[in-house]
Amino acid sequence: MPTTTGNAVKLKLGEIELNVTHPDKLIWPDVGITKLMYIQKLAELAPYLLPHTTGRYLTTIRYPEGIHGVSFYQKNCPVPAPSYIRTADAGDIRYIRLDSLPALVWLGSQYALELHVSCDRIGDPLPDRWMLDIDPSLDEEPRIMEATSIVLELLDSLGLAAVPKTSGATGVQVVMPIERGPTFDQLREFGKFVSEYLTTRHPKLFTVERLKKNRGSLIYLDYLQFYSGRTLISAYSPRARPGAPVSTPLTREEVKRGAKATDFNLLNIADRLRRMGDLIEKTPKQPLGRVLGMISSPTR
């Protein structure tokens, strides 16, 4: 239970105490979410969010004055940091390892509103998933769920199960847990195959053009972002946008109904997860190695 002392609240997490200053500061003013409320929401999300961040390099975006204030990216762990914050070195960067409830709520107290994690796992050269980033060129893209359905239908035709998740912003990422074996280079080739095939089949909807100025209104299939050393928004991470949206896995029915990123937010995500659980966690690891062999065959 929190205890109040002056303009601060002390939270007790087992043996760990966290002093939260300015607990009433509005972080998402449009929906009334304060700093203390944000930390409490993170604690509710922890059982679902932490499996997607544990064992990965973390990059945060911090907003010390809330979503309408100045923001900055942070890769290096701040100094000083509490003793319960674990780190991992990569090159000259000492990344935070977001692997515990205390680490998560401490990051919340540091105004880390977005949690971006590495595609690769710390110390493991082989990926445990494949992801495709479906990135609209328009700020408002009514076709984004149509595009998502088309991607999922192609994967279905290959005998592969995947889960779409909102980015919490404008796009969607398709997430496929995979059996261990394929390399990042092989997954990039698979992503290239999927993206170029769909661009050929739907030239008025999709593009693989990297430069946004050259895409017009086409939806970019970004198969390049999923690679060792790169990051994507974590499942269940909040986004620093009005309405406090949260990156949320979707059911096929929700995709068909045209779900919007703003449908899922810090105010309702915990109830949803208690009802539905983690759709990504429920998806079996897919035998992508078999499909890679099929599409690389000279007889295809």
From TrEMBL:
Domain DNA ligase D polymerase: 34-279
InterPro entries for this protein: LigD_pol_dom (IPR014145), NHEJ_LigD (IPR052171)
UniProt-listed Gene3D superfamilies: DNA primase, PRIM domain
Any Pfam family the entry gives: LigD_Prim-Pol
Lineage top rank: taxon: Bacteria
UniProt name for this protein: DNA polymerase domain-containing protein
Source organism: Cohnella thailandensis
